[in-house]
């Protein structure tokens, strides 16, 4: 499967003769000489990465203990509208751009934030107090497994995206252990790892915007 970029943000007009770094290059069959190399949509990676980064940053600040746990509802609006719906929409656009990796990642993590919102709003209070930590731990473990195998594929995307997925895998593992074992120290560690994850994702989002806007590589992402 080819990973060469054919997205608008990853390709500079022919008269410039240069290509910009795009952390989520589009995937698909080679384009014939008669067909246009431009995908039908602008690169949605900036939106997807930005939505993921901001929602992760806010929740991770709470998990790290920078904000008291009682303030956690502040993240729910972000989880529903930005991390959830906006990121899921970015994934749908990636399907249209024939980017299998980007579509799978953005739709999946958009759905993660939607499920987090739903769990917090409708299910968390009904979990048996004695087993709530194990239930949440199982939920986080499942996402850790998914993120781990996406990390393997991300190595062929860019170093920036690989770093996002590597740190996100560690984040989910730490949060899983913290929830399942009731270890607040591991939950705080997961919060700090999540903050690092969010900052890297924000950088990759900025790289897509800057490189597309300036029509050259302003911020490198280490394309593979």
Give the topology, please.
Layout (H helix, E strand, L loop, with lengths): L44 H19 L12 H21 L3 H24 L8 H23 L4 H23 L2 H31 L10
Quick structural overview:
With about 220 residues, the chain is an all-alpha fold. The chain has six helices and no strands. The protein has one domain (about 45-215).
Describe this structure in words.
- The chain is built from 6 helices and no strands.
- It is an all-alpha fold and 224 residues long.
- The longest helix is centred in the last third of the chain and has 31 residues, at 184-214.
- It has one domain (45-214).
Characteristics of this structure?
single chain; 224 residues; 63% helix; disordered N terminus
The poorly predicted ranges are 1-19, 28-33
Strand tally: 0
Oligomer: single chain
Helical coverage, percent range: 55-70%
How do the helices and strands follow one another from N- to C-terminus?
HHHHHH
Distance between the termini: 14 Å
InterPro entries: AceTr, Gpr1/Fun34/SatP-like
Family: Belongs to the acetate uptake transporter (AceTr) (TC 2.A.96) family.
Region (Disordered): 1-38
Protein name: Acetate uptake transporter
